[in-house]
Amino acid sequence: MSLKEVKVREMDSVIWMRAKIAMIKRKEHNPHMTMAKWLQTAILAQLRKENG
Question: Can you tell me the distance from the alpha carbon of 46 to that of 17, in angstroms, rounded to the nearest whole number?
Answer without folding.
Answer: 13
